[in-house]
Amino acid sequence: MTATASATASTPRVELLSTAGWSPVCEWELLVPGRGVAALLPDGRQVAVFRDSNDRLYAADNRDPFTGAYVLSRGLLGSTADGRVYVASPLLKQRFDLATGECLDDEDVRITVHAARAA
């Protein structure tokens, strides 16, 4: 499932989908393009939420699978030559496609992506 959504003036709050339904994360204006925030889902999972420079939302596991540290929300956003948006881990710099969860540097590793919306 792709975890992207576009925001409009009538959608001021960022929400994530979990087994408990849509959970609020923060106000849209507080999510700075290119930077991430960490959110805790009702089931206890940590998720990293990002807004890119085109106002698309992405959400993925906050846990870096290479180190086990919950730091992906502190990573930097970038994009590949073909337009794939990724987050680079702040620790070892592996890049994860935010639409698919695929590690762009190791095809055997991936993270879970989550549905996000501005509502």
UniProtKB/TrEMBL annotation:
Domain Rieske-like [2Fe-2S]: 22-118
Pfam families the record matches: Rieske_2
Top EC class, one word: oxidoreductase
EC number: 1.7.1.4
Source species, domain of life: Bacteria
UniProt xrefs under Gene3D superfamilies: Rieske [2Fe-2S] iron-sulphur domain (2.102.10.10)
Single GO molecular function: 2 iron, 2 sulfur cluster binding
PANTHER family linked: NITRITE REDUCTASE (NADH) SMALL SUBUNIT, PTHR40562
Protein's name according to its UniProt entry: Putative nitrite reductase [NAD(P)H] small subunit
Organism: Kitasatospora setae (strain ATCC 33774 / DSM 43861 / JCM 3304 / KCC A-0304 / NBRC 14216 / KM-6054) (Streptomyces setae)
